[in-house]
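Schema walk-through. Below, the input block comes first and the output block second. Nothing else is stored per chain. Lengths vary across the set, and this one has 260 residues.
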Amino acid sequence: MTDTEYSLISYNVNGIRSAISKNLYDWLRVENPDIVCLQETKAQHGQIDASLFEQLGYHCAFHSAQRKGYSGTAILSKPTPDTVLFGIGDARFDDEGRLIRADYGDITLLCSYFPSGTMGDVRQAFKMEYLTTFFQYIQQLRQSRPKLIVTGDFNISHKPIDINSPKTHERMSGFLPEERAWMDKLADAGFIDTFRVFHPDEAERYSWWSYWAKARERNIGWRLDYFWITENLRENLSDADILDNVVHSDHCPVALRIRF
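--- output ---
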């Protein structure tokens, strides 16, 4: 059986209905990725017109939060997944629609929207609990599904190269030592930050910018969005990049090309 190369996009759209109003649909039609992972869809099932994406050839899976206008994830896929599963197995997080799993042959794709801790200590503690639960989840999953692609908005900048003015942000959620240590633990467990495979030393490449103070125009940003893969998929990699010229959100898409 011959491997097929697929193009994947991961994108925190900060509201799928808002992004559609900013021509997300037309961009997808032209860009034509094989698989699209979305975070922060902020819509209930009845508020999303799946037929728009189905017309482009996508099978659609949406995991909405119970709270309206909040969180949520989606996978749009031209290749038909063998299995689609919703949630991480913990109602605290699943009620917020934070994870979708799709299996393609022997490869498993996980799309996750990691919590933000910027709203205070309670949400920061919730974020750290999610990180612990998520790590346990993927380590257990690897026992039966060893080839993983993990993508989404992690709400963490891993290294000083991944954030503007790192010294300024050392005590801010998203760049806290314990969050960055969790990313180190992910790498130590055999996961690869695919962007850094192809752009190991490239600075000032970000995927999120505040709406304040013309941060995007000035490129005062954070790299929060990633494709991580297990080491056993390294040879399948073709490319990884940040599509920082694409504007439908305060985030931009990140891209991966990989053989299944």
